């Protein structure tokens, strides 16, 4: 028995377990990718989920020290090709297998560090944060989808960034109340939580709409092995965006908008039929 392979396979399985426990929507999206993409994408999700947990969850601990140690372990795993943290071992395996850029990893960890401090998100810092917290995650996945096709990656780089940006901004809008009340954060530049109103909301929504439109142009060019899964994530977030868009600002501050499970199933079926009919 190849025990090194067993260790790596078990580590990848841990990332799959984490994805299933933390995000049913993301798990559903991954399952609609080609099977060969499942474990690599689970590994990326496990890595970003663990870092996000450090900055968002463990308030009774020194989160800066935890994140610094996570960063150290990450780069040690990348350098040695081994980690006894199964999430980091799975991640480094995928980074090396698909040539994921270390710049993406550094940008992501930088954005996580920004969440440890009170930030005044001016437009430049806002763009920097979204790039590191969301866009590079899409770029990591794009490296997996392209599987060594550098020309395809460069062609789809910008739409992948715009898709990650759209997803993150929808999250910011949906979670504006919890981000402020639980973490003291307002990510949108120039927005004062107490003065959030319909005009401000409409301006944010126009920006998100432009991201969605640019992202779709890339989705239709994805390789077939990845297209359905990414399209499903796209239509799920678009549905969430439209639900938010219909509500006044006061409702957004009073409740967390979600897409019901039965609607997710309908979105999956609709996406599958469009895919089978080659309409995406």
TrEMBL record:
> Does the keyword Cell membrane feature in the UniProt annotation?
no
InterPro entries assigned: Isoprenoid_synthase_dom_sf (IPR008949), Squ/phyt_synthse (IPR002060), Squalene/phytoene_synthase_CS (IPR019845), Trans_IPPS_bact-type (IPR044843), Trans_IPPS_HH (IPR033904)
Keyword Transferase in the entry? The reply is: yes
What are the UniProt keywords, alphabetically?
Answer: Transferase
SUPFAM superfamilies given for it?
Terpenoid synthases
Q: Which positions, given as ranges, span the membrane?
A: none
Q: Which PANTHER family match?
A: BIFUNCTIONAL LYCOPENE CYCLASE/PHYTOENE SYNTHASE
Q: What's the protein here called?
A: Phytoene/squalene synthase family protein
What organism is listed for this UniProt entry? Answer: Hymenobacter jeongseonensis
